[in-house]
Amino acid sequence: MFSFVASLYVAEISRARGRVTELRERFPEASTTELAQRLIDGKVTWAASGGAVGGIFGAAVLPAELAFVGYLQFALILEIALLYGHNLKSRRAQGEIVALLSDLHGLNAPRLLSRYARRALWRRGAELLGRAVPFAASPISAHLNNRDLRRAGREAIRLYETMARLPRRATV
After folding, report:
1. Are 153 and 39 spatial neighbours (Cβ–Cβ below 8 Å)?
2. Nearest to 159 by CA among 108, 109, 88
């Protein structure tokens, strides 16, 4: 099972590297921070679309929508790390990504359960509102996804900009 996840991780690094290279070619004069913001904006567009579609169908697609947003956050973090020149194939880099995702989602059991319970209840309320007022849940869901993606992007920029400013250790 672990080798399957590792192969997905490596495959996503390759895709992220291609997206970062394409972005650098399209905007050669842009700073790293500007490019990172463009990456965030692109992912937010996908998240808003997923939230809009998810809002229409309500709680039935909530697990798929959460997985989709989680994937977008993961891909965004990889892209921003590559943008700042980090080697993502090391164990240390993998740990940094896991730690960043854990911080974003508050991955200790009580916080995680309460976060997703609140979100599910919020969306369930949005779904009920959506039945009363057609398609009202879509913009709410899209907003929640936008907020989560922007937060992931800000945290990744903060981490990798800080790491880029640190002096490199001399290898012996």
Report:
1. yes
2. 88
3-state secondary structure of 88: coil
Instruction: Please provide the distance, in angstroms rounded to a whole number, between the alpha carbons at the two ends of the chain.
Output: 36
Name the band, by pLDDT with cuts 50, 70 and 90, for residue 90.
Answer: confident
Q: 156, exposed or middle or buried, with CB in 10 Å at 0-12, 13-18, 19+?
A: buried
CA 91/CA 161 separation, integer angstroms: 20
Total residue count of the chain as it appears in this document: 172
Contact 4, 20 (CB under 8 A): no
Q: What is the 3-state secondary structure (H, E, C) of 33-87?
A: HHHHHHHHHHHHHHHHHHHHHHHHHHHHHHHHHHHHHHHHHHHHHHHHHHHCCCC
Residue of 37, 108, 43 lying closest to 69 (CA atoms): 43
SS3 167: coil
Question: What digits encode the pLDDT tens for the residues 44-57?
Answer: 888 888 777 776 67
Place of tokens 């800080």: 162
Q: What pLDDT band is residue 109 in, cutting at 50, 70 and 90?
A: very low
